[in-house]
Amino acid sequence: MHDVSRFYLTTPIYYVNAEPHLGHAYTTIVGDALARWHRLLGDDVRYLTGTDEHGLKIQQAAEAAGVSPQEFTDDIAPKFAAAWDRLNISNDDFIRTTEPRHKAAVEELLQRCYDAGDIELDTFAGKYCVACEEYYTDDELITIDGPDGPRADCCPIHLRPVEYFEEENYFFRLSRFEDRLLDWYAAHPDALKPEHRGNEAIGLIKSGLRDFSISRTSLEWGIPLPWDSKHVTYVWFDALTNYLAAVGFGDGTDSYRDWWPVDHHLIGKDIIRQHCVYWPAMLMSAGVDLPKGWAIGGWLLSGGEKMSKTSGNVVDPLDLVDDVGLDGFRYYVLADTAYGNDGDFSIDGFTSRYNSDLANNLGNLLSRVATVVAKKCNAIGTAPNPDSPLAAVAATSYADAAAQWDVVQPSKALEATWQLVRATNAHLEVNEPWKAEPGPGVDAVMGDALEALRIVAVLSHPAIPDTAQAIWERIGLPGQVSDQRLPDAASWGQYIPGAAVTKGDALFPRLP
Question: Which of 38, 54, 57, 158 is catalytic?
């Protein structure tokens, strides 16, 4: 039995040096589905997303655009909020790192770590990638083939040459935390999901930790250190602290403890080091509880490459929604790739899954049920059979889906949900109610199908909320699917006969 509680969930905050693309949408939709699932469980959910607006590359992008950094971020940040609204993202908060509440939280965390003796002044010289805001050693840099021949000293993530920086910085003494981090992860073996991504984080710690710079004097666009205003903090002490800022850390009270520690940080595999190594060490230093867990996703690739502005392979999610519909897009993003693995977006792959799962299975099921009920039952819903063979399928479908949502595997949760969709279609094929005369036999078969659709509407709501509501209404049920509460709502036998069943337009017209 699920214990009802507070559930705090975050996405990474997204850089505003470019507009939202499919890679951003992927993580945000996964988070939305997880948030909706936990609301169905009755949890008090807080789902946070937002934008990362400080740092060198924002400053440079603003200069290139001929505007101030604040003007630049004020233009781009609302586009993320608008995109999430268009994608039906049910975030409870949207944080910008230019907000006063965020500045207060960053100052509080910095001061705590400084007072603990874990931030010290030093001089640093090294090779730095502006795009990922990270220093690299020579061993970590790679050589790539460029138009003018081989290019050495390139970032392994962004495949572009790094820059050499030398200046006086404050450093966080990460090297002191290796044993403490390994001990903590050993005591919390389920904190990192999925396991193969978690192993990457443990490997990073075991390979040895080096101190990292947390301030710059050559950067103006950011939050000054509270004890030395000549230095501006940058990247990780700024960006990561948003998760605390959104729940009141730094407001002079301990109210943040109502929501902290966070249940899941959803992150991409390219920021494991910062989120699963730097962040817990920073929290340890500051005397703040560590997160309960991290859910680490792979990349949604395009043409086999990570989507990026520089690669020219960015897919605009809003363009896709206009072409194929919102829930069709959301379903594909959630169902096509096991969370933690890399996926490769293609129009052919999208079309195949859409037609198979949505048009042929779910859409066809609702259409044939409404058609037969109209012809054989006077368009009035009938009662399900308490002993229907679909009852056991529904119970298994819910149990499997719940288990997969619990470990942040939306694709497997939806596969479990679709077990019931397929079983209900098969039940109709076996009984062929469209060939039978109206009567108790047809009524029982159609009652079973209507009850299965009721449960499917609840279980599919996290992925395709608008469609789930449409199914709910077409089979004659009142109110909102989102107001249903699991596990009770998944119990067999709750469809109330006597409701008007309507057919309506096709839920998911087949794509050519």
Answer: 158
Fold classification of 347-490 is: Isoleucyl-tRNA Synthetase; Domain 1 (1.10.730)
pTM value is: 0.90
Domains 6-321 and 347-490 belong to one CATH topology: no
155 assigned to active site: yes
* Catalytic residue list contains 188: no
Domain coordinates in residue numbering, the chain? 6-321, 347-490
Active site residue 276: no
21 noted as active-site residue: yes
Contact 358, 508 (CB under 8 A): yes
Work out the number of other CB atoms within 10 angstroms of the CB of residue 183: 10
479: region left, alpha or beta (phi > 0 left; psi from -120 to 50 alpha)? left
Q: Per residue in 10-68, pLDDT tens?
A: 999 998 877 788 788 899 999 999 999 999 999 999 999 999 999 888 888 899 999 99
Alpha carbon 192 to its chain's center: 15
**CB contact set of 66 (below 8 Å; sequence gap of 6+):** none
Instruction: Kindly name the residue from 57, 127, 129, 427 that is annotated as catalytic.
Output: 129
Eight-state DSSP code of residue 274: I
Residue closest to 512 by CA, chosen among 367, 363, 359: 359
Q: Tell me which fold the domain 6-321 belongs to.
A: Rossmann fold (3.40.50)
Q: Using CA atoms in the order 145, 147, 148, 149, what is the torsion angle rounded to 10 degrees?
A: 20
The contacts of residue 407 (CB under 8 Å, 6+ apart) are: 193, 194
